[in-house]
Each structure stands twice: as structure tokens, then as C-alpha cells.
TrEMBL record:
Pfam families: Beta_elim_lyase
Protein name: Tryptophanase
Alphabetical list of InterPro entries matching this protein: ArAA_b-elim_lyase/Thr_aldolase, Beta-eliminating_lyase, PyrdxlP-dep_Trfase, PyrdxlP-dep_Trfase_major, PyrdxlP-dep_Trfase_small, Tryptophanase_CS
Family: Belongs to the beta-eliminating lyase family.
Cofactors: pyridoxal 5'-phosphate
Domain Aromatic amino acid beta-eliminating lyase/threonine aldolase, residue spans: 42-411
Species name: Halovivax cerinus
């Protein structure tokens, strides 16, 4: 049952089919280029797109915008201490700002960083330090057809030991656990795996970092699936799981329930000092670090709300019900359903479209044309050189959409899926300079139904 009601409404509009066709063509068949006003249900991301509570809006007014010693920073610090258990906090403008502060302080050229699966910005920040990001997912984590286990987000210690055999322990300054594992369909990580990773990191003398973006959703899965925590609250589980880390890196735009903001938190004084000084260079003075005082207030309240049992149960169940409905309709989705999004296996949904014609992107475009629904491709268009499944992610903003919206999305996806043979592949029409980032800006065009003659006219 919902545990909130609507106090402020925002008008949304389903543009006509003709308007949608025009918008998509103008956007070069890339939904990142479509105006938000032309989108009806926006499932591009769950990051920074949720609704704040009345308590958070009220807290905004208390924002202390002092450059130094802001009391809003103190309230953020005490929320991080209470909810996550860490005494020292370096705020940043969002998650990737915090990643720059943390990995810039921890990682040197030639190093190797291990992670259950690096999220894109994490990978980029590690690489930016001249280091090598290496993923250690468990078997089946990226296989949408594995219909796998309860904790497919886990970190594979066996894989990590192979890397250690290869590069030695001195080359590995940090071991990272991303909870939930966004790049493995939002699957959770168990507390027992967290303990093993902590032991492993201690053994090789590496800093154990948790990317805690979706820590509350992860704790909810633990409460359901890990016997040891049958009687524990989500708040207790979160404290316990995060407590094994030496440092947290956080995007407040997810389980901080705010539209912008992030931080690094640690109980290691040397690391804190290093992060604090790097933050001054890249983010701001340590008592605001890239955030407005008012935003730190909203984040302080949001962190406490995120571990409230009623909130997080409603959140994860909404995503699950939506995903299971698609599965019941025969749409090939990654199961079990993850915490923040439903992932569709586009290669299975559109078998007639080969990988070099971007089946995921074709599916994203078709969902927009069919129902004004915006998702995101996470396959061969977004990751040109990686061996990834052709996934489309429908990410669910927090406290934003209700059952009628999900009925519409499910109907849209079902009707695209039923009529899948008419969907055409796409090809690149522009070539942005950085291939890893091409999916944000590249333009595409439908592959013609008949291939034009290639005879030379010279
Ligand atoms: N880590 C993870 C696991 C993330 O999912 C994200 C962002 C970040 C770090 C970076 O945080 O956006 O605040 O700079 N994920 C968003 C997404 C963008 O759509 O999944 P940020």
C-alpha cells in the first residue's frame, strides 16, 4: 500500500503520434536529444528524478549558505553518522564528483581497482587516474537469461584472487562493492558477501569502498533474502552492511532522495584529510563541497527517509510489480527484478535485429514512438567495445509515478513486443569524438529496408 500521497502535481502530456515521430527524427533517433516536454513517462534514469517529501521541501528553507561552518553541513554530517555510521563527510556536487575526490585520493597511475561491476562514471574516474578498472561479477550476473540467484550483484572473490595472482597486491589500492549493482541489472549484494570482501580487502591491504548509491534498496533485499536478517530492520541492515567499509562514495540522487548532491564518508583520518584537500580543488570548501546549504538539508532528511521500512518496501515492490507484469506478458526481462529498474533483453525481444544495428536502441525508440515512454539503451550502442548483453533499462524514479502510469508503460512495451517484426534496426549517422560517450549525443537513422547498390561510379 502506498505510504504517501500527492501534494504538488506536475502536468505531463502524451504528444500525438505525429509529434512523437517528428521529435524522434529531430533527435536523430537518440532519446537523450528529445525534449523532456515531449516525453510522457520518463524512465531514462532513477537518478535525481524522484519527488522530495514535504519534510525535505521544508528543510530547504533552513539552508545555511555560509561559505564556512554551515549548520546545514552539520545536519548532513549527523544524518550520515546516524544512518550510515561514518563520522567524516566530504560533500560533492553529485556521485561522480565524490568519485573524483575519492579515487583521485586513493588511486595512482598503473594501479588496478577491483569492483563487483564498475558503473560507467566509476570506471571513467579510475581510468582517468591512469589505473585499470577490473570487474569481478559472479557468474551469470550479466546474463539476462540466467534467471539467477538471490544475490546476483555479489563480488566474486575467486575472480579477484586471479587478478591478485596476476598483478600482485601492491598494485591494488582499493576494492569496491557497488550496492545494488547497477551494471548487473540492479541486483543486490548480500551482507555475507560484504563481509568476505571486507576480509579480502584487509588481507591484501586495500581500502574497502562501498558505492552506496542504492544502499537502502539493497538492505531491503537483504531483509527479504538473507536468513540471518529475518528480524532486522532495513535501517539496522544498512548500518551493518555499510559498517564493513573503510569509505563510502555516494550519489545522493538515488537513495539520498534528492535531485542533486553526493559525498564521500569515511572513518579513516588520513583518507579524510586527502579527500578534504582534493575536494577544495574540485568541489568547494569542505563544509559545502559543491552543494548549496539547502541541498545538504534536503539530503540529510532524505537519507533518514530512505531507510524507513514503509518507504523502501513500497519503492522496491513498485519496481518488482512492474517488472513481473512485463514478464507475465511474455516480455523477456532480467529476473529476479532489480531494485531501481526493469531490464529488458532486447536481443531476445527483437531477434531479427543484429547487434550492429543496435536492437536495444531500436527498442528504446519504438517505446517512445508507441507510448511516449523514454528508457535507455545499455548494449552495443552505449558500450561499443564491451561484451555486454543488449539491455534496455526502464528506471523508476522514486515516489513519482503510480499504477496508471505503469499500466500505460506495460501496455506500450507489450504492444511493441507483440509487433516486434516491424521494428527496424538503426545505424550511426554521426560519429562523436569519444566513442565511450557516443550514446549521449550520437545521431542515428533507420537502416533502409533495401540496401542501395554499392557499385562504384568512378
Ligand atoms: N555510482 C553508481 C552505481 C551510479 O548508478 C551512478 C549514477 C553514479 C555512481 C554516479 O552518480 O550520477 O550522481 O554522478 N547513475 C545514474 C544512472 C546516472 O542513471 O544509473 P551521479
Amino acid at each position: 500500500m502506498p505510504t504517501y500521497r500527492t501534494k504538488v502535481s506536475e502536468r505531463i502530456r502524451l504528444p500525438s503520434r505525429t509529434e512523437r515521430e517528428e521529435a524522434l527524427e529531430t533527435a536523430g533517433y537518440n532519446v537523450f536529444n528529445v525534449d523532456a516536454d515531449d516525453v510522457y513517462i520518463d524512465l531514462l534514469t532513477d537518478s535525481g528524478t524522484g519527488a522530495m517529501s514535504d519534510e525535505q521541501w521544508a528543510a530547504l528553507h533552513r539552508g545555511d549558505e555560509s561559505y564556512a561552518g554551515s549548520s546545514s553541513f552539520e545536519r548532513l554530517e549527523s544524518a550520515v553518522r546516524d544512518v550510515m555510521g561514518f563520522p567524516q563527510v566530504v560533500p560533492a556536487h553529485q556521485g561522480r564528483g565524490a568519485e573524483n575526490v575519492l579515487y583521485g585520493s586513493l588511486v595512482d597511475e598503473g594501479d588496478v581497482v577491483l569492483n563487483n561491476t564498475h558503473f560507467d562514471t566509476t570506471r571513467a574516474h579510475v581510468a582517468n587516474q591512469g589505473a585499470r578498472p577490473v570487474d569481478c561479477p559472479v557468474d551469470g550476473a550479466r546474463d539476462p537469461t540466467a534467471r539467477g540467484g538471490q544475490f546476483d550483484g555479489n563480488f566474486s572473490i575467486d575472480r579477484a584472487r586471479e587478478i591478485v595472482d596476476d598483478v600482485g597486491t601492491d598494485a591494488i589500492p582499493a576494492v569496491v562493492l557497488t550496492i545494488t549493482n547497477n551494471s548487473a541489472a540492479g541486483q543486490p549484494v548480500s551482507v555475507s558477501n560484504t563481509r568476505e570482501v571486507a576480509r579480502f580487502a584487509a588481507e591484501i591491504d586495500a581500502t574497502f569502498v562501498i558505492d552506496a548509491c542504492r544502499f537502502a534498496e539493497n538492505a531491503y533485499f537483504v531483509s527479504e533474502r538473507e536468513d540471518e536478517f529475518d528480524d532486522a530492520t532495513v535501517a539496522e541492515i544498512a548500518r551493518e552492511q555499510l559498517g564493513y567499509a573503510d569509505a563510502l562514495v555516494m550519489s545522493g540522487k538515488k537513495d539520498g532522495l534528492v535531485n542533486v548532491g553526493g559525498f564521500v564518508a569515511t572513518d579513516d583520518d588520513d583518507l579524510y584529510q586527502a579527500c578534504k584537500h582534493r575536494a577544495i580543488l574540485y568541489e568547494g570548501f569542505p563544509t559545502y563541497g559543491g552543494m548549496a546549504g539547502r541541498d545538504m538539508e534536503a539530503l540529510a532528511v532524505g537519507l533518514r527517509e530512505a531507510v524507513e521500512a514503509a518507504y523502501v518496501a513500497d519503492r522496491v515492490e513498485q519496481v518488482r510489480q512492474f517488472g513481473e507484469r512485463l514478464a507475465d506478458d511474455g516480455v523477456p526481462v532480467y529476473e529476479p527484478i532489480g531494485g531501481h529498474a526493469v531490464y529488458i533483453d532486447a536481443a531476445a525481444a527483437l531477434p531479427q535485429i543484429p547487434a550492429d544495428e543496435f536492437p536495444g536502441q531500436a527498442l528504446v525508440c519504438e517505446c517512445y514512438l508507441e507510448g511516449g515512454v523514454r528508457g535507455v539503451e545499455l548494449g552495443s550502442f552505449a558500450f561499443p567495445d564491451a561484451d555486454r548483453p543488449e539491455l534496455v533499462r526502464l528506471a523508476v524514479p522514486r515516489r513519482t509515478y503510480g499504477p496508471a502510469h505503469f499500466d500505460h508503460v506495460a501496455e506500450t512495451v507489450r504492444s511493441v513486443f507483440e509487433d516486434h517484426e516491424s521494428v527496424r534496426g538503426l545505424r550511426l549517422a554521426s560519429d562523436p569524438p569519444i566513442p565511450e560517450l557516443r550514446h549521449f549525443t550520437a545521431e542515428l537513422e533507420p537502416v533502409p529496408t533495401t540496401t542501395p547498390s554499392t557499385t562504384s561510379t568512378e
